[in-house]
Amino acid sequence: MTLSGQLQAAGVQLELLTGPLSGIYDPNGMGAMFFAVLAAAAQIERNYIREKTVEGQVTAAAKGNHGGRAKVIDDDMLVFARALKDRGVPVPEIAKKLTIKTGKNAGRHPSVASLYRALVEAETTEAPAGPEIIAPRRPTCVDLTGPGSGTDPELMERLTRQVLDGKSDEVTDALAEQTEDEAKDVVAQLLAQARNGE
Fold first, then answer.
1. d(Cα 39, Cα 27) in Å, to the nearest integer?
2. 3-state DSSP call for residue 183?
3. Which of 90, 121, 182, 193 is deepest in the core (most CB within 10 A)?
4. How far apart are CA 20 and CA 91, in angstroms?
5. How far apart are CA 131 and CA 68, in angstroms?
6. Is the confidence at residue 179, as pLDDT, over 50?
């Protein structure tokens, strides 16, 4: 629209060489209306192209493609380089062991400067050196000693009375007969027996 206004102000005429509307159009009179229609159509087309471009960028970003040149040192190469650096291998030797996989330099070794840059960037972003393995945690075995470990008869008698309300002397007798290894699960057994109503 701005360009159309500038052309009209300068008195530039529009000449269409082919098509049903071929001819010369003056920016004054009927030509002004034609200029306005063409300018509006151009603006609509420009907005449509911009919307589609943004939509394409959003779709590409959702797929993980953010545009630009491909990285010379990918994540696998970086993991390998960090492992070698941790072992004390000099960075120039590490660069000779790496090979670029894609792009116009495929098959060549990355420059030492690129490797230094990638290593510094990885250290500043605190990226993990390898794939992060998430495994379920194992329960830790706690070995209780002292009062409440199942070896103190007074405490065991009190626990039995509190949990079972003194319902059974068999529980106390059974607990007293347990060995040292079995005494770790005393509280769990007491609670299970209390729930079962024994």
1. 12
2. helix
3. 193
4. 69
5. 25
6. no
- Cβ burial of 71 (10 Å; 0-12, 13-18, 19+) is middle
**Percent of the chain at pLDDT exceeding 90:** 20
Judged against a pLDDT cut of 90, whether residue 49 lies above it is answered with yes
Query: What's the confidence (pLDDT) of residue 155?
Result: 67
Tokens representing 23 are 């001819």
The structure tokens listed for 67 are: 């545009």
Collapsing DSSP to helix, strand or coil, 180 comes out as: coil
CA angle in degrees (0–180, nearest 5) for 108-110-115: 165
Rounded CA separation 57/67 (Å): 8
Read off the pTM.
0.35
| Residue 129: burial class (beta carbons within 10 Å; 0-12, 13-18, 19+) | middle
- b/e per residue, 79-89, with b = 16+ CB within 10 A? bbbbebbeeee
Residues 49 and 20: their CA atoms lie apart, in Å, by 26
